[in-house]
Design goal:
The chain has about 725 residues and is mainly beta. The relative contact order is 0.05. Helices cover about 10% and strands about 35% of the residues.
Length: about 725
């Protein structure tokens, strides 16, 4: 910055046309004209009327011109010129980013970089030394140094320890003019912090720690704390504790409290004052994060001794076992002792113990316990099939302090007594095919026993002695608790016998041996060649399909309805067919076929072609007639009226109707007559066609002498009244 006095002439202008008579006028325009600079209109001198500051404006551009004072016309062209402000050292160096904050690790070597500071000078750096700055430390030596030209701060002492001094404040000066006398200076503060490194091992403040613990302390509970001191901070101060293996340390465990870095000692196993009153072990503390640069300093761990003193506590009795398991046979007499529990007071000056059952439900009433001896006895009869296991608790209390009790579980298993005989497991019913082969296994059966079968329980199978003489079936024991029902013969038939009953004896292997006789029902069924049932009964047909009872009833109902419809339809057809046959004149049943020669009698089987008497429809359908033995006709002996033999006509008409409606009866009611009987007939000719005598003249009493086969005929013709033979045909 260059400052000038007011009305200081900085420049003079003069025109060659100016003769000094006042005819020329000078004018000034441009930067600062009239405010910073003025011009004398008569002489042309330019004056500065205001102080100049180079840092505000380093130069000004002005324009000057000479004009005629009368005409105001330019006498010469306008001239432009620049006024440059010359700098002087009027600005001190300044730290624009100060004050500064920096850090450097402790124990850093000499010359370790800390920070670089920078000061700026507003003076012109191209003119003189006004802007050349030099740095120096006014406060902070001998710990740190600074480069005079660059302003880089570095450590000046080795092994600066954070634990000794952590914070440093350094005062930095920047001076222009190259640091020469008379230069301007500026200062700033740099706050330097030594950061921590793990250069200190943990140390216990004392070598022995004493801890008192009641013997009733729970497993897993904290019983004491110890602490090692590490002057480092952060992760460098994290400590890990460990119990040194040795005598006494196996009952305890130690962990680190992350907030306080203390070692928390916990109980790993129960304590017992009566068995051991004190424990001594060593604990080692070490850093978690180590710095290899300081391994030479020494081991980063420390060891202390911990002594645990167990305090005696009045405790409840202690059972000899964590639980008790006992066994008793079912139906054991009431009052039988089945076992005992034992508890004792382990405290000094032990007290007597009393026993009680922890009553919770009615199950506990099955047993009693002797309060002084601890023996357990049955109080009721036990049944394994009802309850196989009992589980209850026994309480033991000290006589000296009944409030101190302990509990133990007792499990009583009820052993089985072989009281139930084995039985055949389902099914009790089987089937055999009509085409079964001898030796074929038709069913495999097993056994079931209500008793609890012990390991290795075996069942044996055999036939009952009552059927072992000549059985239709036998039993083959497979010796794996199963047996096979085996057919002894072939040719089973439902028509001969539909059901067989097979008594099977099953015997168990327990003591005492129990056996039972189980009767199996074997149904005879018709099967195909593969043994698949084709027909047996309704249940055998539909049960394999898996139909329910409702579905089976529905199917049977549908079958019944269909059968009714078929019967009605057949009845209507027969009635219609009967009417047609009765009215047809060509029906062969209305004709009597007469031959001129008589047959050969009973021995002649070729004389007459019976085909002419067959049903034409049966001939067309090529159906073979099946002869059916007629039912024996038993009519009561009665005397018909003499007028028209009404009973005989009714009887014959009834038989005609029955035979007309029966397609399986002999061929209709046609009658074949012969002129004479064959020579081989003992009764000779029975025909009355050629007889000249009337029926009244015939004597039929001899029919009674022919035996019971002619009894009915003798009764019919033995009446006093006679009837017309034409009515028979």
């Amino acid at each position: 910055m260059m400052r000038t006095p007011l009305q200081f002439t900085i420049m003079m202008l003069h025109s060659d046309l100016d003769k000094g008579v006042g005819s020329v006028k000078y004018t000034l325009s441009g930067d600062g004209a009239g405010t910073v600079f003025t011009i004398d209109e008569t002489t042309g001198d330019i004056h500065a009327i205001k102080s100049l500051d180079r840092e505000e404006k380093p130069f000004y551009t002005l324009r000057a011109q000479a004009v005629d004072i009368d005409t105001r016309k330019p006498l010469e062209p306008e001239s432009e010129f620049i006024i440059k402000v010359q700098d002087i050292n009027d600005n001190e160096p300044k730290f624009l980013d100060g004050p500064y904050v920096a850090s450097v690790p402790e124990m850093s070597p000499v010359g370790a970089y800390v920070l670089q500071v920078k000061a700026t000078d507003a003076d012109d750096p191209t003119y003189g030394n006004s802007a050349r700055v030099v740095y120096s430390i006014l406060q902070g030596q001998p710990y740190f140094s600074i480069d005079p030209k660059t302003g880089v701060i570095r450590t000046a002492l080795p092994n600066m320890d954070r634990e000794v001094k952590e914070q440093y404040q350094v005062l930095i000066q920047a001076k222009d003019m190259g640091g020469q006398l008379g230069g301007l200076a500026g200062t700033t503060t740099v706050n330097i912090t030594l950061t921590d490194v793990n250069d200190n091992p943990p140390r216990f403040p004392k070598s022995i720690f004493h801890i008192k613990v009641p013997e009733s302390s729970l497993v897993g509970s904290a019983i004491g704390r110890i602490r090692a001191v590490d002057p480092d901070s952060g992760k460098n101060a994290e400590i890990e504790y460990m119990i040194v293996p040795g005598d006494g340390g196996n009952l305890f465990d130690i962990s680190t409290d992350e907030n306080t870095q203390e070692g928390i000692i916990k109980l790993k196993k129960p304590l017992d004052f009566e068995s051991k009153k004190a424990y001594t072990f060593k604990v080692e503390a070490s850093n978690v994060h180590l710095d290899h640069r300081f391994h030479s300093v020494g081991p980063f761990k420390d060891t202390a001794t911990v002594k645990i003193n167990v305090l005696d506590v009045d405790e409840p009795p202690v059972f000899s076992k964590p639980f008790y398991t006992m066994e008793v046979y079912e139906d054991t007499p009431i009052g039988t002792i089945i076992g005992a529990v034992t508890a004792q007071d382990l405290d000094v000056g032990s007290s007597a113990v009393r026993y009680f059952i922890d009553w919770k439900n009615d199950v506990d009433s099955y047993f009693t316990i002797d309060g002084m001896e601890g023996t357990i006895a049955t109080n009721e009869l036990l049944d394994r099939e009802s309850t196989a296991q009992y589980n209850f608790s026994i309480l033991a209390s000290k006589v000296s302090n009944p409030l101190l009790t302990s509990k133990v579980n007792v499990i009583i298993n009820v052993l089985d007594v072989n009281e139930f005989p084995p039985e055949i497991a389902v099914p009790y019913e089987s089937y055999v095919c009509e085409n079964a082969r001898p030796g074929q296994v038709i069913q495999v059966v097993g056994a079931a026993d209500k008793d609890l079968s012990p390991a290795g329980q075996r069942f044996s199978f055999r036939l009952s002695p009552e059927v072992s003489a000549k059985p239709n079936f036998t039993v083959h024991d497979f010796r794996n608790n199963t047996a096979g029902i085996v057919a002894r013969r072939s040719g089973y038939s439902r028509r001969q016998q539909e059901l067989y009953f097979l008594p099977v004896v099953i015997e168990d292997s327990s003591y005492p041996i129990q056996s039972s006789t189980n009767t199996m029902t074997i149904r005879v069924c018709r099967c195909d060649s593969d043994g698949t049932i084709l027909s047996c009964n309704v249940e055998a047909i539909f049960l394999p399909v898996g139909l329910s009872t409702g579905a089976l009833i529905a199917i049977l109902l549908c079958i019944v309805i269909l059968l009714v419809i078929v019967v009605l339809y057949v009845a209507l057809r027969r009635q219609k067919k009967k009417d047609t046959l009765m009215t047809s004149k060509e029906d062969i049943r209305d004709n009597v076929i007469h031959y001129d020669d008589e047959g050969g009698g009973e021995e002649d089987t070729q004389a007459f072609d019976i085909g002419a008497l067959r049903n034409p429809k049966a001939i067309e359908d090529n159906k073979i007639r099946r002869d059916i033995k007629p039912d024996a006709l038993c009519l009561p002996r009665s005397k018909p009226p003499a007028e028209d033999n009404k009973n005989i006509r009714d009887f014959i008409n009834q038989r005609l109707r029955e035979n007309d409606g029966d397609p399986s009866a002999p061929p209709y009611d046609s009658l074949a007559t012969y002129a004479y009987e064959g020579n081989g007939s003992v009764a000779e000719s029975l025909s009355s066609i050629d007889s000249l005598a009337t029926e009244a003249d015939q004597d039929y009493d001899y029919l009674s002498d022919w035996g019971p086969r002619f009894k009915i005929l003798a009764e019919m013709f033995g009446e006093e009244e006679s009837y017309n033979p034409d009515k028979i045909t």
